[in-house]
Structures are given as structure tokens and as C-alpha cells.
Design brief:
alpha/beta; Rossmann fold; Heat Shock Protein 90
């Protein structure tokens, strides 16, 4: 392929075509057409970067030519040659996005050269952007497959290790050996939780919204059942209230990511001292907003850490729990859905996080 810019010039006067070719053929690869129909054939069959058309041609104006050309090949950048009397047509063409710029007659060589080079820069920039978008879509699709495949390949062996450990504990009598298997179980649970966190991270930050009607009572009931099987909640007093009288539309998976991470934090960041552990989950759907409030009486967060707790991998405590992903994922999911998140927390008193989400339909 030639490295030169490919230019198509359409004019119904043969002398103008010959003059244009003779003047610019050293700088550009020139195609010429003496009527619009021939011009349309060239933009269909040849690689053309810039198209220059005279506004006044018999049978079809330059503006009308560009309108037809867009349906055949919208990529070339379009320049219109016109006289002052055609200014209304030019303005109309520019407003419709059919023309990059116009050049009034009589034109000079340097003006034409500069216009062609500038137009070609736009053409190649757009082509590069288009190619990168195609690669990005392909990468996004491959990443989706990779993440889910990776999680499956990791969880399979992990569940096998956990199963073998449980069988071994049933057969072993020595408490010191059982302790080793307890350590294995603890490590597998932690790794499995991290895999789930990574999947949630991907769902909350990389996957487009899937909008559906949200019944918060059903969502909460399902999630609470999952939490009771995952966590030991025997020492917790859990208060759940859902007040929803109007329809609400949102991304179900992202709402679950928000609930999962906030509830998990309420459980994990509790005090070691004896005493009643409390978690309160309230969801109020008011008009077109859903307000999700999670409150606990756990270890709390120092005020100096409040601005940082939503940052990636940020931990506001030295406790060896959590991945530093939870609140970051919550913030990302909330912001992607056009919502707001507010934090209130006192050290050794507890934490309240309030998420406000707009209905997305």
C-alpha cells in the first residue's frame, strides 16, 4: 500500500481535474471523477482517505454527493469546494456532519495541501481509534472468559483439598495433627473467599449493567441465607428491615456485590471482647431512590482513615482479615450506577454505611 494520502477529487470540469492531478500528484495519490456517480464507484472500490467535491455539479450537488457517499463509505474525510453564493448549503452540510471543512473558490495550492494533510490526520486517527476499539472489545470478551475459567480452575482443586482435609480429620485422633488440618481448612476458606472477591471485583468494575426489576425483600432473604451458611452468626443480633412499596430497577449482581461486601465487613470487623454483636440492615425505597443502610457496633474506623477506606487494597485496621478490596468494590459499583455512598464511624463504637442508588429505568 502506498504511504501517500489518497485523495479523490470530483468536478464536472475536465480542465480542473487535470490541473488538480498535475499539481498535486507528487504529494498525494490522486483519484479524479468527472461526475458524482463515478466518484461513488471510486469510494466503493478504492481506499480513499480524503474526498474533495465541488458543490455545483449537474445532476447532484456536492452536499448531496456526500450524503450518498456516507451510505457507501463513511470513513473518508470530506471537503467541499464552493463559492460565496452557496454558503447556505455549506452551513447545512457542516451542521449535518457531512463535511469536515469547506474551501471557497478560487483556491490556492498551499491551502488545498494543508487542508488535505489536516483531513488525512483525522482519517488516520479515527482509523487507529477504530482498530483499538475492536482490539479492546476482543480483549474484554477474552478477559470475561479468562476470569470465569480461572475461578473454576482454582476452586476445583481448592474444594478437593478442603474435602480431603475434612476426611482426614475424621480418621485422625491426635489433636496436634488435627490442628494442622484446621490450619489447612482456614487457609482454603480464606483463599476461596478471595476468589469470590475477585469475581465480585470483576462484576462490579468491568461488566456492563444488566438492568432488571429489583425486589429487595427477595434479594435480602437470599443473601441472608447465604450469609448464615458462610458465617457463624450465633453470637450476632441481626435486624433486617425492607421497606419497598414502589418498583425499582437496577443491576441485581452489583447490588449483591454491595450487600455482600458491606455485610462481610460488619461480621469480620467485630470486637473480640464478650458482648452483644449487632448488625442492622435497612433498605428503604423512596420514590426513585433506594437507600441501603448497614450499621454495626464493631471496632469502627479511625477518623483519619475515613477518606482512604474506599481506596484499592486500603486497610484501616491491622487485623489480619479482609483483602482491602471490599469497600473499593462497593464504591465502584455505587458510582457506576450513579449512586452515592456515605460513611459514619467511630473507633471502638461502630460503623454506619449508607448507600443511595437511583432507579435505572
Amino acid at each position: 500500500m502506498s504511504n501517500k494520502i489518497h485523495v479523490l477529487y470530483i468536478d464536472d470540469e475536465d480542465n480542473n481535474l487535470k490541473s488538480f492531478r498535475a499539481t498535486l500528484r507528487k504529494d498525494f495519490k490522486i483519484f479524479t471523477a468527472i461526475d458524482p456517480e463515478e466518484g461513488l464507484r471510486i469510494v466503493r472500490d478504492e481506499e480513499v482517505h480524503v474526498v474533495i467535491a465541488d458543490q455545483r455539479m449537474p445532476g447532484m450537488t456536492g452536499t448531496e454527493f456526500f450524503e450518498k457517499m456516507i451510505t457507501i463509505n463513511p470513513d473518508p474525510i470530506r471537503i467541499l469546494l464552493t463559492g460565496y453564493s452557496d454558503i447556505a448549503s455549506v452551513i447545512d452540510a457542516i451542521n449535518k456532519g457531512e463535511v469536515y471543512r469547506f474551501i471557497d473558490k478560487p483556491w490556492n495550492i498551499e491551502q488545498i495541501k494543508n487542508s488535505i494533510k489536516n483531513a488525512a490526520d483525522i482519517y488516520f486517527m479515527r482509523r487507529e481509534l477504530k482498530e483499538k476499539n475492536i482490539k479492546l472489545k476482543k480483549l474484554h470478551s477474552e478477559m470475561n472468559q479468562f476470569v470465569y475459567s480461572l475461578s473454576h480452575e482454582l476452586r476445583g482443586p481448592l474444594m478437593s483439598i478442603s474435602g480431603v482435609s475434612k476426611l482426614a480429620k475424621m480418621e485422625v485422633q491426635d489433636p496436634s495433627i488435627i490442628e494442622y488440618f484446621e490450619m489447612i481448612d482456614s487457609a482454603t476458606v480464606k483463599l476461596d473467599d478471595f476468589i469470590y472477591k475477585m469475581l465480585d471485583f470483576y462484576r462490579s468494575t468491568k461488566i456492563d449493567h444488566k438492568i432488571s426489576e429489583i425486589n429487595f425483600r427477595d434479594v435480602v432473604d437470599q443473601q441472608m441465607e447465604a450469609y448464615r451458611s458462610k458465617f457463624d452468626l450465633s453470637n450476632f443480633h441481626i435486624d433486617v428491615q425492607v421497606n419497598q412499596e414502589s418498583l425499582f430497577f437496577s443491576d441485581d449482581s452489583k447490588i449483591r456485590v454491595i450487600l455482600n461486601n458491606l455485610f462481610s465487613n460488619c461480621v469480620q470487623f467485630q470486637k473480640h471482647e464478650p458482648g452483644l454483636k449487632q448488625i442492622s440492615l435497612t433498605i428503604d425505597v423512596v420514590d426513585t431512590d433506594a437507600i441501603i443502610t448497614l450499621e454495626d457496633n464493631g471496632i469502627g474506623i479511625e477518623k483519619k482513615h475515613h477518606p482512604e477506606v474506599f481506596n484499592l487494597f486500603m486497610r484501616a485496621t491491622q487485623k489480619n482479615v479482609g483483602t482491602g478490596l471490599g469497600l473499593y468494590m462497593v464504591k465502584e459499583a455505587v458510582e457506576q450506577m450513579g449512586g452515592r455512598i456515605d460513611l459514619e464511624s467511630e473507633l471502638n463504637e461502630g460503623t454506619t454505611i449508607r448507600v443511595t442508588l437511583p432507579s435505572m429505568k
